[in-house]
Specification:
The chain has 22 helices and 28 strands. The longest helix has about 90 residues. Helix 1 packs antiparallel against helix 9 and helix 19 packs parallel to helix 20. Strand 1 and strand 2 form a beta hairpin. The strands form six sheets. Strands 1, 2, 3, 4, 5 and 6 form a six-stranded antiparallel sheet that branches. It has a five-stranded antiparallel sheet with strand order 9-8-7-11-10, sandwiched between helices. A five-stranded antiparallel sheet has the order 13-12-16-15-14. It is flat.
Length: about 900
């Protein structure tokens, strides 16, 4: 930044500066004052208008707040009037009843007739009565109402002591007594009126109770009615919010009741109503910000709010606002006119001054142009330097023995300005192998035999390295002078030289190796342009290819020729930059060698692939190793299959033992029954009462037991037969078959089975699923036996079948105790068992995992639960299964 050359100003440039800079500065200053004046006046105008509008809005809001409180006072007045009418109705009914008593019962009160009268009046007037004797406090009618008063007054509805206190309180209030009985918890109010009458010297109290009045609901209803009666054309509306039911009424000035959940879904934060509603939805205390819009019934958790638009308040003072704007606009116009006038005057005087300066500079400019003309002839000498500005330029003053280098030349070799000052300094930097040819060229120039220089040489850089350059130069001789200058330019060709050397080194490197570098034409036979001498490792000579006696395609194995052609064609069609291919080459002795080819596609100027450039590497040993590896893998697979067959055989033997045990359990009862029938026949065949019909009966019973035993054999044989093909089956039915097989053993061991299932069909191997489930159930039974050896408990196995996404989920859990972590990690390993050698083989759960995950393409997991273990099986609902290999064998 600091080395940047400063601009040299001409006299013409200075004239322009004196002409335009004062005028531009005056215009800028005028614009600045205009902007400042505008913002000052705009700020004052906004402040004055804001003061007027704030005053108007405050008056408007106060008026609307007063409207809200008047509305609330009106509602409360109507509620009071409603309660007063109820009191008057109660007193009228009581006086009417006392008049009836005084007329009908002058000597003695007939309690039965009196109750009939009170029941009839209660139903007609929708009130409740209480009648009791003052001295004895004996309730003659309305005991239930007194119990309600006990609960309200003392919260003791069943105590005789507090009932007496309640009656004493009523009698203590005297005649013609009105009472308000409030139940604050439910916000209910009961009104009563009591008076007395005398019959046969006894004083009685009779009272009438209103039905339970919910002041909360009354207030709410009167509020809604008052809102409905309001004129909807007003510039405001009142709405009501019940925080108990989370509903609003007249929120949108339409007289409708809406749930706030629906209203808040609109999420309009710019609307004051939504802000109030959102706040009081989660808060039940007053908010100072909303106090001018909301009246809060704290006892009932009701909110009455008034909504209005402040913009209506601004309509009243529009004329005053317009007058303020007109005054400020007029003032801004006068200021603008004054600034423009002063600016015009200043610009006029600046142009007068610039004209005077221009005349002075004109004289000096004429003299300067004459001197500039004399330097024109130097222009031609630097034309070559300008054309080659991208190269390093340098100038040699042969007479003064001085040398000058451009910044580009110095950067090219890393030197600083002044480090090289004469021709000898430069010549010393030339590589010793190149000095002779450079010296010869300059001798010809110095002798006058030549006036130009062209050559390549290496020049030492500042970091002690050498760089190849291509130099061109021309000798210039000044007219009428013996001064000579040599103008030179240097082009950096170091990268190209090093690249060529690297290519030669690569060629030398692979000369006697197994990697063959080649370049061939993209024709049918892949005719060779160049090929490395390493082709001799395959028995061929480089010269055979250079003389076109052999093509690249001639040495490729016959069966692989088409393979290489297809690979080349595919690479061209896909516009790949390079491709690879493995194929075989036949050497001169007929031996076949595997090779790896890697080639890049070379294109001409029309984007057509004309040549292939790449290498061929002998990979015969790698291919042989791969074949050996395949043989070893095949042998290992066969060994694993043999091991799996042994496991399957052991699993079949274990399953056979389980089957025989289950058959024994199934047969024990019918065999016992057949044995008893045979003994009975032996003991009774000579008995005269033993008829042929009885004989037939017992023979049929025996046949039934034998048929059952035969059916058991068929059931077990079908159960243990492995599935050869997949079929669609119902999981619930399959599990029922498993439980049927193991029913006898589970009942014998007192193990309860809880089975819950959804109706799910899948396509899979049905019998193998049954075998897997039976293995898990037997393991659960064994675990329960081990736990029962330590303590008795109610054993249970739970089976649940549900849908889980795209899987049928089968969960089998038991309460036979949890499994230790190290055992759980190995539970599916072959030959791993926690039982004695005589009690288990350790392959049951291994075969179960193999069946579920290999054959049925499912998932099986195990985890500890409370007091037991749970197995979870996930089976795909729709599966295309491959033929089984291991299990069916």
């Amino acid at each position: 930044m600091f080395n940047k050359k400063k601009k040299i100003y001409t006299l013409h440039d200075i004239e322009k500066l004196f002409t335009y800079i004062p005028a531009i500065f005056i215009l800028f200053l005028a614009f600045f004052f205009l902007v400042i004046s505008y913002f000052i006046l705009e700020s004052k105008q906004a402040r004055d208008i804001d003061l007027i509008q704030q005053k108007q809005i405050l008056n408007y809001e106060f008026d609307k707040k007063d409207t809200l409180y008047k509305f609330v006072d009106t509602v409360e007045t109507e509620v009071e009037e409603d309660l007063l009418s109820v009191k008057e109705h109660l007193s009228q009914v009581v006086y009417k009843t006392i008049g009836h008593i005084n007329t009908k019962y002058k000597k003695e009160l007939n309690l039965g007739l009196m109750k009939l009268y009170l029941d009839k009046t209660k139903n007609n007037e929708n009130i409740k009565f209480v009648l009791f004797e003052k001295d004895t406090l004996n309730i003659l009618y309305g005991n239930e109402s007194i119990l309600n008063l006990q609960k309200v007054m003392f919260n003791q509805p069943h105590s005789s002591k507090f009932k007496k206190l309640t009656l004493q309180y009523i009698s203590s209030q005297g005649k013609s007594n009105f009472e308000n009985w409030k139940y604050d918890l439910q916000k209910n109010l009961i009104l009563s009126f009591f008076d007395t009458f005398f019959i046969n010297g006894k004083e009685y109290y009779i009272g009438a109770f209103s039905s339970i009045n919910n002041i909360k609901q009354i207030t709410k209803q009167y509020t809604k009615n008052a809102i409905k009666e309001m004129n909807k054309d007003l510039n405001y509306h009142i709405w009501f919010y019940d925080s108990n039911t989370k509903t609003v009424f007249n929120f949108e000035n339409n007289g409708r009741r809406l749930a706030i959940k629906r209203m808040l879904q609109k999420n309009n934060p710019d609307n004051r109503k939504y802000s109030i509603l959102k706040y009081y939805k989660s808060q039940d205390d007053e908010n100072q910000e909303f106090s001018k819009y909301v009246y809060f019934y704290f006892k009932y958790s009701y909110y009455v709010s008034i909504s209005y638009d402040n913009s209506n308040a601004l309509d009243a003072n529009k004329e005053e606002v317009n007058n303020i704007k007109e005054d400020y606009n007029s003032l801004l116009f006068r200021i603008t006119f004054l600034i423009i006038l002063i600016t015009a005057i200043l610009i006029f005087f600046s142009f007068v001054f610039s004209t005077f300066i221009k005349n002075i500079f004109g004289k000096y400019n004429l003299d300067l142009s004459r001197k500039t003309t004399s330097l024109e002839h130097w222009k031609k000498r630097f034309e070559l330097a300008i054309i080659a500005s991208n190269d390093g330029l340098w100038d040699i003053d042969l007479k003064a023995d001085k040398i000058y280098f451009s910044a580009q030349w110095l950067n090219m070799f890393g030197y600083n300005k002044g480090e090289l000052s004469n021709f000898s300094d430069w010549f010393a930097l030339i590589h010793k192998e190149d000095k002779h040819q450079v010296e010869e060229k300059f001798d010809k120039i110095f002798c006058g035999m030549d006036d130009s220089f062209v050559g390549e040489y290496r020049l030492k850089t500042k970091n002690s390295g050498y760089k190849w350059v291509f130099a061109r130069g021309k000798l210039f001789t000044e007219e009428n002078s013996d001064s000579q200058r040599m103008l030179m330019m240097s082009m950096d060709i170091d990268k190209n030289k090093k690249m060529m050397k690297e290519l030669l080194d690569v060629e030398l490197l692979v000369e006697d190796g197994r990697i063959v570098i080649f370049k061939c034409n993209n024709d049918n036979n892949l005719s060779v342009n160049t090929i490395s001498n390493s082709i001799k490792t395959y028995g061929y000579s480089k010269r055979e290819f250079e003389l076109n006696n052999l093509n690249f395609m001639d040495i490729i194995y016959e069966e692989d020729k088409n393979l290489l052609k297809v690979a080349v064609k595919a690479a061209i069609l896909k516009e790949l930059k390079s491709f690879s291919q493995v194929f075989r080459i036949v050497n001169t002795g007929g031996e076949i060698r595997w090779v790896f080819l890697r080639a890049i596609l070379l294109k001409d100027d029309f984007a057509n692939v004309t040549q292939l450039y790449g290498y061929v590497h002998d990979i015969t040993k790698i291919k042989v190793s791969e074949e050996d590896l395949k043989v070893r893998v095949q042998n290992e697979v066969e060994e694993n299959i043999k091991k799996d067959r042994l496991l399957i055989q052991q699993s079949k033997l274990a399953s056979m033992g389980e089957m025989l045990g289950n058959i024994a359990h199934q047969w024990r009862q019918p065999l016992n029954t057949v044995n008893l029938i045979l003994h009975f026949l032996r003991d009774n065949y000579q008995n005269e009462s033993f008829t042929k019909e009885k004989l037939e009966k017992y023979i049929n019973k025996s046949k039934t037991q034998i048929d059952y035993m035969s059916q058991t054999i068929d059931d077990f044989r079908n159960f243990y037969k492995p599935s050869k093909t997949v079929n669609e089956f119902n999981i619930q039915n399959a599990i029922n078959d498993v439980l049927k097989i193991s029913k006898e053993q589970l009942e014998h061991d007192d193990i309860k089975v809880v089975f819950e299932s959804s109706d799910i069909n899948i396509t899979n191997y049905e019998n193998e699923l049954k075998q897997s489930l039976l293995n898990i159930i037997h393991n659960a039974r064994d675990a329960i036996h081990i736990k029962r050896d330590k303590s008795s408990f109610d054993a249970c196995i739970t089976i649940k079948v549900t849908l889980d996404d795209k899987f049928a989920k089968i969960t089998l859990s038991n309460n036979g105790g949890v499994m230790e972590e190290d055992i759980m990690q190995r539970v599916f390993e072959p030959y791993f068992t926690t039982k004695f050698e005589t009690q288990g083989t350790g392959i049951g759960l291994y075969m179960t995992k193999t069946i579920i995950e290999t054959n049925m393409k499912g998932i099986i997991k195990v985890e500890n639960i409370e007091d037991g273990v749970s197995f979870e099986i996930l089976l795909p609902l729709e599966t295309i299964l491959k033929p089984k290999k291991v299990i069916d064998e």
